[in-house]
Amino acid sequence: MEICQQLVCQCNNKIYKSIATLKAHQKTQGHVLWENTREQKDQLIKINRLENENNQLRRLNILLIERINVLENK
Ligand SMILES: [Zn+2]
Fold this sequence. Notes:
About 75% of the residues lie in helices and about 0% in strands. The protein is an all-alpha fold. The mean pLDDT is about 90. The structure holds zinc ion (ZN).
């Protein structure tokens, strides 16, 4: 069953009879395009995550500066 799963390409969910035919398919434009699109999506997700983290850190930074100011003014 594991071998069967390996011979299914995620881009089209097609089952390939051998590793050779699967590898041949993975060199086709359609598959390469799909892989590039997937990588771009992954990168966009990573960028979004980093932007969120960055915004959180900025907010935390502002909060900490405010608290320091309050402490210094006491
Ligand atoms: Zn494919």
